[in-house]
Amino acid sequence: MPLYQFRCAACGPFDRTFPMATVPDAAGCPTCASAARRQITGPRLAHGATAAMCLLDATKRSASEPAVVTGPRPGVVRNPTPTTANPLHRTLPRP
Predict the structure, then answer these.
(1) Inter-CA distances, 80 with 4, 77, 83, Å
(2) Which residues pair with 6 in a beta bridge?
(3) How much is the CA Rg of the chain, to the nearest whole Å?
(4) How confident is the model at residue 28 (pLDDT cuts 50, 70, 90)?
(5) d(Cα 48, Cα 57) in Å, to the nearest integer?
(6) Could you give the CA distance from residue 33 to residue 93 in angstroms, rounded to a whole number?
(7) How many beta carbons lie within 10 A of that of residue 8, not counting itself?
(8) Taking the CA of residue 43 as centre, how many other CA atoms within 13 Å lie in the half-sphere pointing to its CB?
(9) Where do the segments described as Disordered lie (predicted)?
């Protein structure tokens, strides 16, 4: 069922669902029970909490707010740089 927005003069906007064939021009406000007129709004195609929507939002957010890595993940052990015991390697120039 579609979601329609109504606006109460005293309480402000609220949403209600109605079948498309029976949507009224006015509905009772859930707070004060006065008549609230139906508002004309744009379609809410981007509202939702599905996994796909969350993934799209995270992808868009990462373009302007990239995640900063401060260190390795917990539980990940990093192997130290291997060192050699050959005494001839000590005479080589260091980078």
Answers:
(1) 61, 9, 9
(2) 14, 38
(3) 30
(4) very high
(5) 11
(6) 85
(7) 19
(8) 3
(9) 63-95
Q: Residues 51-92: pLDDT tens digits?
A: 888 888 888 888 888 888 787 778 877 777 788 889 998 899
Backbone angles phi, psi at 63, to 5 degrees: -70, -35
31: CB partners within 8 A, 6+ apart = 8, 10, 11, 14
- The span from the CA of 37 to the CA of 43, in Å, is 18
Q: CA 43, CA 4: separation in Å to the nearest integer?
A: 10
Question: For the chain, what's the residue count?
Answer: 95
The H-assigned helical ranges of 1-95 are 51-64
pLDDT tens by residue, 35-57: 999 998 877 776 667 888 888 88
